[in-house]
Amino acid sequence: MAAGVATWMPFARAAAVGWLPLAQKTMPKPPVDKKSRSDEILFVNVSGLRFQTWKNTLDRYPDTLLGSSEKEFFYNEETQEYFFDRDPEMFRHILNFFRTGKLHYPRHECIQAFEEELAFYGIIPEIIGDCCMEEYRDRKKENQERLAEDTEAENAGDAPLPPDATLRERLWRAFENPHTSTMALVFYYVTGFFIAVSVIANVVETVPCRPIKGSIKDLPCGEKFSVAFSCLDTACVLIFSFEYLMRLYAAPSRCDFARSVMSVIDVVAILPFYIGLVMPENEEVSGAFVTLRVFRVFRIFKFSRHSQGLRILGCTLQACASELGFLLFSLTMAVIIFATVMFYAEKGTKGTTFSSIPASFWYTIVTMTTLGYGDMVPDSIAGKIFGSICSLSGVLVIALPVPVIVSNFARIYHQNQRADKMRAQQKVRQARIRMAKKGATNAFLQHKEDGGLQDGDGDSTPLCVKNRSAFEHQHHHLLHCLEKTTNHEFTDEVTYSEVCVTDSVGFRTSRSTSLSSQQGATTTCCSRRAKRRAFRLANSTVSVSRGSVQELDTLHVTKTPAGTQYPQSRSSLNARTENLKLNCDDYTAAIISIPTPPANTPDESLPNSPAIPGILRNSRSSTFNTQETVKISSL
Amino acid sequence: MGLVMGTFSMQSNKQDRTYRKDKIDDDFELSIVCHRPEGLDKLEAQTNFSKQELQVLYRGFKNECPSGVVNEDTFKQIYAQFFPHGDASTYAHYLFNAFDSAHSGSIKFEGFIMALSTLLRGSVREKLTWTFNLYDINRDGYINKEEMTDIVSAIYDMMGKYTYPALKTDTPKQHVDAFFQKMDKNRDGVVTLDEFILSCQEDENIMRSLQLFKNVI
């Protein structure tokens, strides 16, 4: 039940007086509350810090540790107080939740400690108030990411391989984590060295060397020592190819590896050489071949395997791609506008350098970025005016708002993300809260199952019914009164849809109270589920029949995955026993008698049906199951 | 270009700020409204509750509604939490009007306590009068079939969709007809207060049930 509802319970029950004249049946007896009514002050000692509060305050949330009878476990008889060996600072927030109905997240506390405290006291974190929810979510996400990183780093590396690892696995390991073995380290450094050598060779071969004797022109070193350089190049390419092939062989998933960025870089680095090998010594193609050699510079990117920083830079650029894209787009717009203006302004000038709009692009960019090479200069007055406007706006466009735009867009982008995230999270939150609430609605149905509505005296009521809180008793009594007023009962969705099905099939039933198994029309419904419910009303004489049940649909199991999920609701734990699939052939009886209005019955004459609808459920097994799985503190 | 972008973003900021300011002003105004009840002794004299009970009730009330009044939306929300199966808002609306006898739009603690006193500790006649006022939506002294149908439909709404046996569209009407059969003595189509009280006193079930809620507090 949500905030503070327990306070309004007396009012809701009093308002039930309004139903009395309408009721067609007698109202059930109210639950007797044996405990004293007067409110008392409880003492709670948390690691030495003493708190005092009204008992009513704690009773407001019967689903929590402090609100349920679970706190009796912590009661200290000598000092007449409840002692908890937990963090007193955190307890302050927990108690404030009881007092005000809103749970706040203290910003200076560690998020995991806070969550552990919440789990201990049985409070689901979804009810953190909106004021603190965002902060809580952010911190939690941050924490989870950090933990994920840590575990990844741990797992990634240094755990020793199982002794029966194949050569492939060992090789892959050596490639990915060079620190694991000396061979891997050696290989790592050797490849690094050769990458460096290759890059330096590419650079140096274009430097002009002293000319060979007899000629005046300076030669680039590449041509002077062409043999040496080509040997070096070949050696590097051989090593890179060997490395690439080894990685390809060792990769656990070759397709994924082939598609990864690093492998693309590797391929691009060595391809020019091989293309050069297969290409004929032709004048036209050698031009293209020369451009291909440019790609050799990509070998420098191979360093990113050796450098963490490069990888991070790459990731950052990837992450900011959309912002950068928009920045570029707005700059392009500005450039196009000014280029057009300058072109038309300078059109009249003789011998102008602004030969076309694309040619003016160069001028605009150079001016806006305040480079001002001076290779293109406007002559006309209009050109100069617009030129100056261009350079001024360049300062404004590029220098000033770049940080503002970047941060603005980061903020707006994150806001949008947050709005969508909030909406998605809100749904999840509501779903979890609804699930907890559903527990409460099912509690009433379960209560009926357990025979809690029997008018018998206290001794015969099942144990699980007795141990419910007073609040629950009162709430169930209220719902029972409503049922009596309207002469209809609460059921759950499944039963309802089923009854609709059987109604529409023209199911005429009321059988007598025999235990014989029935074929024919009954089996359509009964074969799927034979359900039985204990009779609650005094004037019923149908005996409970044995039989197996296919599915106890009002029982739900609360799956608690190890440690991460909080018990949804202490007071309403219904167990769905999925393994209770018994053989349909075994069932001996399915007695369903629905009093059908005369209009529906076909020509068959019906024996007098008992006035009470009786769908029997296997109350015995259900109570047994509930006793097993319900976490009742005082058994 | 950047100018344009910059000015746009500045504009939206300003608008946000003014909107937020208005909202804060509104909230500030609302929270000023506060109500304190009369003294404990006076309330004890006027109702059938003891001082202890009044204390407990007020503490709960004040905690839920720090401003000291309950408005209709809060009331509906609270009542709806007791009936998660169905839709309790219509019935809560009628209930609110029954509690808010002065039709001020909000229930103060005194009104709340008076009604509770009548319902839980009042005489049979007082309880039945309160119930009559609940059913008599337009307060004209007569309950006619439309009013009764509204009330009964609202009650059936609280049951929700999944009931056994399934709710049919004319179930409320049948219920109302049965009610009028019992209550309307002179068959004039309306039920007056006297007819109502007389008929209820003749019905044993109702008399017995009225005593059920004595020990709610």
TrEMBL record, chain A:
Any one cellular-component term (Gene Ontology): voltage-gated potassium channel complex
CDD domains named among the record's database cross-references: BTB_POZ_KCND1
GO BP term (any one): protein homooligomerization
SMART domains in the cross-refs: BTB
Transmembrane regions: 183-204, 224-245, 257-279, 324-345, 351-373, 385-406
Xref: InterPro entries: BTB/POZ_dom, Ion_trans_dom, K_chnl_volt-dep_Kv, K_chnl_volt-dep_Kv4, K_chnl_volt-dep_Kv4.1, K_chnl_volt-dep_Kv4_C, Shal-type_N, SKP1/BTB/POZ_sf
Gene3D superfamilies xref list: 1.10.287.70, Potassium Channel Kv1.1, Chain A, Voltage-gated potassium channels. Chain C
Range of residues in the leader sequence: 1-16
Subcellular location: Membrane
Principal place of residence: membrane
Occurrences of domain BTB (ranges): 40-139
Residues covered by region (Disordered): 143-164
Pfam family, one: BTB_2
Keywords: Ion channel, Ion transport, Membrane, Potassium, Potassium channel, Potassium transport, Signal, Transmembrane, Transmembrane helix, Transport, Voltage-gated channel
Membrane topology: Multi-pass membrane protein
GO molecular function annotation: A-type (transient outward) potassium channel activity
Family to which the UniProt record says this protein belongs: Belongs to the potassium channel family. D (Shal) (TC 1.A.1.2) subfamily. Kv4.1/KCND1 sub-subfamily.
PANTHER family for this protein: POTASSIUM VOLTAGE-GATED CHANNEL SUBFAMILY D MEMBER 1, VOLTAGE-GATED POTASSIUM CHANNEL
Subunit structure: Component of heteromultimeric potassium channels. Identified in potassium channel complexes containing KCND1, KCND2, KCND3, KCNIP1, KCNIP2, KCNIP3, KCNIP4, DPP6 and DPP10.
Protein name in UniProt: A-type voltage-gated potassium channel KCND1
From TrEMBL, chain B:
Organism of derivation: Oncorhynchus tshawytscha
CDD domains named among the record's database cross-references: EFh
Subcellular location(s) of the protein: Cell membrane
SMART domains: EFh
Highest taxon in the source lineage: Eukaryota
Keyword Transport in annotation: yes
Single biological process term from Gene Ontology: regulation of potassium ion transmembrane transport
Annotated ranges, domain EF-hand: 123-158, 171-206
SUPFAM superfamilies the record matches: EF-hand
Family that this chain belongs to: Belongs to the recoverin family.
Gene Ontology cellular component terms for the protein in this record: voltage-gated potassium channel complex
InterPro entries registered for this protein in UniProt: EF-hand-dom_pair, EF_Hand_1_Ca_BS, EF_hand_dom, Recoverin
Keywords on record: Calcium, Cell membrane, Ion channel, Ion transport, Membrane, Metal-binding, Potassium, Potassium channel, Potassium transport, Repeat, Transport, Voltage-gated channel
Protein's name according to its UniProt entry: EF-hand domain-containing protein
A single MF term (Gene Ontology): potassium channel activity
Entry annotated with the keyword ATP-binding: no
Classification lineage: Eukaryota, Metazoa, Chordata, Craniata, Vertebrata
